[in-house]
Design a protein that fits this description.
mainly alpha; single chain
Length: 165
């Protein structure tokens, strides 16, 4: 109970500071950290330092969750999305994945990691591919340029109607 009284104000302040950037309510962030603290056995040796890290970790989790969630009330929620739209979207993904697989060199591995649903950081991608983190940006740019040229060659140019050229 002493830990609760000691850390309560700090947790409130940290959660209030991190919540807007994570897109969650500060009280929800606070609650998640309290649960994490209860699960932590034994109590952390440096509770203040642990608390700050836990708040930031929970905020990261909330940001990642918010990127993957689809809000209710959208076209998919009511079942009003046309089957043709779903088919076309799936076909676009297949074409993209197929083009990525045909890229030269390390591009398929890099682009696969960037498109991964695991939402990897540059550091994690560099570790998986065994290359330096600083070279990821230039390699990514070259791969995207190659992919752009490849897809442009495969897609028919629009006709000369209206303002399209």
């Amino acid at each position: 109970m002493d830990l609760l009284n000691e850390l309560g104000p700090l947790l409130s302040a940290e959660a209030a500071a991190e919540a807007p950037g994570a897109g969650v309510d500060a009280a929800d962030l606070e609650q998640a950290v309290w649960v994490r603290l209860l699960e932590h056995d034994p109590a952390p040796a440096e509770p203040v330092r642990w608390l700050r890290r836990a708040v930031r970790a929970e905020a990261r989790v909330a940001r990642r969750r918010a990127r993957r969630e689809i809000p209710y009330g959208g076209a998919l929620a009511g079942g009003t999305a046309e089957p043709e739209d779903a088919l076309l979207h799936g076909e676009e993904n297949r074409v993209l994945r197929s083009a990525v697989a045909r890229l030269p060199g390390r591009c398929p591995e890099l682009m696969g990691a960037l498109l991964s649903p695991r939402d990897l950081t540059y550091r994690e991608i560099a570790g998986e591919l065994g290359i330096s983190q600083g070279s990821l940006g230039p390699v990514r740019s070259r791969c995207l340029g190659c992919l752009r040229r490849m897809l442009a060659a495969e897609v028919a140019a629009p006709g000369l109607r209206g303002k399209e050229r």
